[in-house]
Write a sequence for this structure.
C-alpha cells in the first residue's frame, strides 16, 4: 500500500519539476547572453521580472526535490520492511541448531 501511494503521488511533483526546469531553460534561451554581461547590449527584458520568475521556479524545484526525498525515504522503509520479512522467514525455516554446534567452548568461528 505504501508503494502504491508513493508512486501515485509522484506524478504531479515530477511534472512540476520538469515544467519549472523547462521554463527556466526557455527563459535563458530567450534572453541570451546580455543578461550575463557577455555583450555591451542592454538586456531586452526586465531583469526583475526574470528574477521573480526564476525565484518561483526554483521554489517549485526545491519543493519537488523535497517530495523526491520523502518518496526515497518511503521506498527505503518499504525495502527494509520487505527485507526484514524475508530474513525472518528464512530464519524460521532454518534448522534449530546452536551457532557453536561442534565448536570448542570459547572459540569464534569466522567463516
Amino acid at each position: 500500500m505504501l508503494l502504491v501511494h508513493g508512486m501515485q503521488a509522484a506524478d504531479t511533483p515530477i511534472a512540476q519539476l520538469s515544467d519549472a526546469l523547462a521554463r527556466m531553460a526557455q527563459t535563458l534561451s530567450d534572453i541570451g547572453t546580455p543578461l550575463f554581461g557577455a555583450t555591451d547590449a542592454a538586456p531586452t527584458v526586465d531583469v526583475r521580472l526574470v528574477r521573480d520568475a526564476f525565484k518561483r521556479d526554483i521554489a517549485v524545484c526545491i519543493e519537488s526535490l523535497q517530495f523526491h526525498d520523502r518518496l526515497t525515504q518511503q521506498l527505503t522503509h518499504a525495502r527494509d520492511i520487505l527485507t526484514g520479512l524475508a530474513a525472518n522467514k528464512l530464519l524460521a525455516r532454518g534448522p534449530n541448531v546452536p551457532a557453536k554446534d561442534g565448536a570448542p567452548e570459547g572459540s569464534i568461528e569466522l567463516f
User: Anything to note?
Assistant: The CA atoms of residues 32 and 38 lie 9 Å apart. The radius of gyration is 28 Å. The longest helix spans residues 47-93. Helices lie at 2-9, 11-31, 47-93.
